[in-house]
TrEMBL record:
Active site: 40 (proton acceptor), 87 (charge relay system), 131 (charge relay system)
Entries under Gene3D superfamilies matching the protein: 6-pyruvoyl tetrahydropterin synthase/QueD
Record-given protein name: 6-pyruvoyl tetrahydrobiopterin synthase
CDD domains in the cross-refs: PTPS
Entry superkingdom: Eukaryota
């Protein structure tokens, strides 16, 4: 009997959180920030109902039939996404964004880094952050761009 090759699968789970922020870079003047970020540079901020889809990938365990237990993934997402971000002012309540502009790209990186600390090594595949129905960022960890 020949050995069966590993069955790989991707598993995704989503959560939604609400947060406000102001797009503003400390490296730019007020005029440059307004020109670059427009109405998203409002000094009082603005809010979003973000949807985050986390995808893990791995071998389907022949005993459990799972890539990972969804209950575990739900708990990791609660700790890495909901607790630090839900109903927060990203710029004022999340220390990471005190020095990093709270763009959706950087929100995706923040979530990725938090999940990497919790999930089994090598299982995290991608993080999708939907700022609106039209605006989505997909982050798959450190990838290099040849210039």
């Amino acid at each position: 009997m020949s050995p069966r090759s590993a069955r790989l699968a991707r598993l995704s789970r989503s959560v939604t959180f609400s947060a406000c922020h102001r797009l503003h870079s400390k490296s730019l003047s007020d005029e440059e920030n307004l020109k670059l970020f427009g109405k998203c540079n409002n000094p009082n901020g603005h809010g979003h109902n973000y949807k985050v889809v986390v995808t893990v990938r791995g071998e389907i365990n022949p005993v459990s039939g799972m890539v990972m237990n969804l209950t575990d993934l739900k708990e990791y997402m609660q700790e890495a996404i909901m607790e630090p971000l839900d109903h927060k002012n990203l710029d004022k309540d999340v220390p990471y964004f005190s020095e990093v502009v709270s763009t959706t790209e950087n929100v995706a990186v923040f979530i990725w880094d938090n999940l990497q600390r919790l999930l089994p090594r090598g299982i995290l595949y991608k993080v999708e952050v939907h700022e609106t129905e039209q605006n989505v960022v997909v982050y798959k960890g450190e990838e290099t761009i040849v210039k």
